[in-house]
Amino acid sequence: MTDSEGAAATFDNVVVTTCSHLAAALCPDLLPAERERLQRVEYLGIVCVSLVLRRPLANYYLTYITDDATPFTAVVEMTAFIDPAELDGNTLVYLPKYTGADDPLFEASDDEVVESFWEYLEQMYPGLTRDDLVAARVSKVRQVFAVPSLGFSDDAPSVATSVPGLYLAGSAHLPFSTLNVNDTLSLVDEVIAAAGLGVSQ
Predict the structure, then answer these.
(1) Considering Cα of 199, then 26, then 143, then 160, what sign does the dihedral take?
(2) pTM across the whole model
(3) Residue 18: which of 178, 171, 183 has the closest Cα?
(4) 121 and 52 within one domain
(5) What proportions of the chain, in percent to the nearest 5, are helix, strand and coil?
(6) pLDDT tens, position by position, 50-96
(7) Which domain range does residue 157 map to?
(8) Helix (H) or strand (E) holding 17
(9) Based on the domain organization, do 70 and 23 belong to the same domain?
C-alpha cells in the first residue's frame, strides 16, 4: 500500500471497507469479472439530521413514516434506549432519509436540510418548539446501503478476492440483511474466517 504522501507499507492482509465502486477503483489487480461485479452494485445514500432536544418526543425508539410528504423516512429516538442522563438530561434523535445519490438534498446546505426536517417534525409533534432544540448536525453520504434487488444474493461480491490477502467487507456483502450491528459483526467474523485468522491473532 502507498499512502497519499508516497510512503509505502506492506501488510499480510488488507480489508477494504468502502462501497464496492470505490473498492473496484482502489484494487486494480482484481480480475475484470470481480471489478465488473463490484461496479454493478447499486446503492442508496443517506441524509441524516441528528438533533439534541431538551425534551423527549414520544419515547419510541423507532417510528417509520409512510407519508409521501415527509423529508425523512423515520424518527429514531435513541434516548428510548439510552439514559438521558448520559446527555445531560437531553434527548438524542436521528432523522434519516435513505435516498438516491442524485437527490437534491445532497446539494442543499445543512441549514436548508435542518429547516426542512424540523418543519415536518413540528407537524408530527405539535408541542415541539424551537426552544426545545439544543443542537442539530447533518450527515450526507451518497453510497451507504447496497440495494437488495432480484437475484442480488446470487451476484453479490465475495469477501475473499482473487488477490491473496485482499478482502472486501461492505454493505454489498450483506445481501440478506441490513447494516445493523449484529449483521455487521457477522460480516467481520466472515472476513476473519476467510483470512484464516483466529481470534487469538
Answers:
(1) negative
(2) 0.80
(3) 171
(4) yes
(5) 30, 25, 45
(6) 999 999 999 899 999 999 899 999 999 999 989 999 999 999 999 99
(7) 14-41+149-194
(8) none
(9) no
